[in-house]
Design a protein that fits this description.
Elements: E1 3-4, E2 7-9, E3 12-14, E4 19-24, E5 29-35, H1 39-58, H2 61-77, H3 79-90, H4 94-117, E6 123-126, E7 129-137, E8 140-144, H5 150-163, E9 167-171, H6 178-190, E10 197-199, H7 204-212, E11 218-222, H8 225-236, E12 242-245, E13 250-254, H9 260-272, E14 282-288, H10 289-303, H11 314-329, E15 333-336, E16 352-355, H12 362-365, E17 372-378, H13 381-388, E18 393-394, E19 396-400, H14 404-413, E20 418-421, E21 436-437, E22 440-441, H15 446-452, E23 454-462
Parallel strand pairs: 1-5, 8-9, 8-11, 9-10, 11-12, 13-14, 13-19, 14-17, 16-17, 19-20
Antiparallel strand pairs: 2-3, 4-5, 6-7, 7-23, 12-22, 15-16, 18-21
Helix pairs in contact: 2-4, 2-6, 3-4, 4-5, 9-10
The structure holds (2E,4E)-2-amino-6-oxohexa-2,4-dienoic acid.
(2E,4E)-2-amino-6-oxohexa-2,4-dienoic acid is lined by residues 148-149, 153, 156, 222, 245, 278-280, 427, 433.
């Protein structure tokens, strides 16, 4: 008998819909039975969210902020359980799950409680005229969450949506329902008003029912560019706001004046963390020619030491492996890796480094989302910037240099929403977060999240 996961609607658990399996990617074995939310179940979830919306929106901000802190307390109280379910669903390393994935859930709720409480309001003065803005929640927000950082990303969206006064319907990935189900338990444990948070499970069709629903007032989504544009079309007729963090083909630029130990260690992290399954992971590494050979040798040696996290599913493993085949066909040279991990029943592929492929190759232009990167030498700063910017994506970039002027110069020329200098994935939750080009639309983080999850009304009066 597998652990059962039921939808969470209006504060109740609803085990309706065709059952589907969720697997442990480490073993390839089924660990949970979940249910597909059909159009009717999704409709009930949206109605529950709508019914709860007016009272939630009317709560004073300080009270909603207090609920956010209770959610954070609830997460901390169930910390070990959350770590266990997240690892069972994804095969993440224990250390990462305990220091990043789950703590960020609590931090998301605590941070947005503070950011919202301190949000300033605008007033504009003309002679005899006062204008000011008030912010109203959108209403009901659809929160569509991917499988790579399931708890971190769900809470990253939930916290600002809720504190801004919205109610939500969450659709987790079919691959990773566990931590969402635990969050439903936490909502019940702390007595969150029913209908404020609703969770429905299923595949893409469930997400489709949700974003197409006329009762949805906005959509936040992290995932593939293709799904993002499908969602955009689905809400176009109703002209609903969307916030998307989509694909990436992120570049790292390693200059000859870089601290090489730091650059190698940082690039190993940025390429291989979470099995390369983070939209911020580096897939293109450009290294100044004078240090190329040494950097390549050290990166390849380090790749053998990194934690091997399985791909999330057999399908995704096969997709990543298909890019290795493609690299071979396109004439790439493998410095390390290049296949599935032999003798593993789970969805493992080897940490892989390729060189020698043209920039225009599919390997170098398409997001692979696995433990893999391509290395290429460059000669000048201008060339490095041009190579980095040659992608259709523009989510994140990383610059490794000890030159202060160069760091700022290059960072400001890169076409990316996020640039890290001499570090990677260092987060300040108050900063705008998101991508340019095919990597997304809108920014979340800090007050940008609150701006997305609410709408200003401008009030202008004559002072007569
Ligand atoms: O750390 C975050 O806040 C964030 N939004 C990470 C996104 C990762 C995408 O795979």
């Amino acid at each position: 008998m597998f652990e059962q996961i039921a939808h969470f609607i209006g504060g109740e658990l609803v085990a309706e819909g065709t059952p589907f399996p969720a697997y442990d990617p480490v073993t390839g074995k089924q660990i949970r039975e979940v249910h597909v939310a059909d159009r009717d179940v999704v409709d009930r979830a949206v109605r529950a969210a709508r019914a709860a919306a007016p009272a939630w929106a009317e709560l004073p901000m300080a009270e909603r902020a207090a609920w956010m802190r209770r959610l954070a307390d609830g997460i901390e109280a169930r910390f070990d359980d959350l770590v266990d379910v997240e690892i069972a669903d994804t095969g993440k390393p224990v250390e990462q799950t305990r220091t990043l994935d789950i703590p960020r859930g609590a931090a998301n709720f605590r941070s947005f409680a503070e950011i919202a409480a301190q949000r300033p309001s605008n007033a504009f003065h003309l002679p005899g005229v006062l204008s000011y803005t008030v912010h109203r929640p959108l209403g009901v927000v659809a929160v569509v969450v991917p499988w790579n950082l399931p708890f971190l990303l769900m809470t990253w969206k939930l916290a600002p949506a809720l504190v801004a006064g919205n109610t939500v319907v969450v659709k987790p990935s079919e691959n990773t329902p566990g931590s969402a189900a635990l969050l439903a338990e936490i909502c019940r444990e702390i007595g969150l008003p029913p209908g404020v948070v609703n969770i429905v499970y299923g595949y893409g069709a469930t997400g489709g029912h949700l974003v197409e629903h006329p009762g949805i007032d906005g959509v936040t989504f992290t995932g593939s560019t293709r799904t993002g544009s499908t969602i955009m079309r689905a809400v176009a007729d109703r002209v609903k706001p969307v916030s998307f963090e989509l694909g990436g083909k992120n570049a790292a630029l390693v200059f000859e004046d870089a601290d090489l130990d730091k650059a190698v260690a940082g690039t190993l992290r940025s390429v291989f963390t979470n099995g390369g399954q983070v939209c911020l992971c580096t897939e293109r590494v450009y290294v100044q020619r004078s240090i190329f050979d040494e950097f390549a040798r050290r990166l390849a040696a380090g790749a053998g030491e990194v934690y091997r996290q399985p791909m999330i599913s057999a399908e995704h493993r096969d997709k990543v492996l298909s890019y290795f085949d493609l690299a071979r066909e396109e004439g790439g040279e493998f410095l390390t890796g290049g296949g599935a991990v032999p003798g593993e029943s789970g969805y493992y592929v080897e940490p892989t480094i390729v060189t020698g492929l043209p920039e225009s190759s599919r390997f170098n232009t398409e997001e692979i989302f696995g433990p893999v990167c391509h290395l290429r030498p460059f000669d000048t700063e201008d060339e490095a910037v041009e190579l980095a910017n040659s992608s259709q994506y523009g989510l994140a970039a990383t610059v490794w240099t000890t030159g202060l002027g160069r760091a700022h110069r290059v960072a400001q020329r890169l076409e990316a929403g996020l640039v890290w200098v001499n570090t990677w994935y260092l987060r300040d939750l108050r900063t705008p977060f998101g991508g340019v080009k095919l990597s997304g639309i809108g920014r979340e983080g800090g007050t940008q999240s609150l701006d997305f999850y609410s709408e200003p009304t401008t009030i202008t009066m004559e002072l007569t």
